[in-house]
What does this fold into?
Amino acid sequence: QVQLVESGGGLVQPGGSLRLSCAASGSIFRINAMGWYRQAPGKQRELVATITSGGKTNYADSVEGRFTISRDNAKNTVYLQMNSLKPEDTAVYYCNADARTIFSDYNTNYWGQGTQVTVSS
It folds into this structure.
């Protein structure tokens, strides 16, 4: 199994910044793509940003230019730097990883428990 633990959420004023972290642990053989998703109250979970093991990134249009995803492969950790935050960014942010354990021959999708981000004055 692979465990994903997020940190860094909280309350921030509009225009402010937050940095989310997600550390993967467990019986990891390889982590492929990692990413961040979010779910606002009453809405479906949506993609925020993804990053491949080689560093190729992809962003939702709503966060392009404001958010930056990065990863440290040596630490099995992915980050999300969020700048110029807006009230509509308020959501629970979930870490996601496509990974293979040392006990498996195939990849599995894993999710973190989520961290709340609230943008409000």
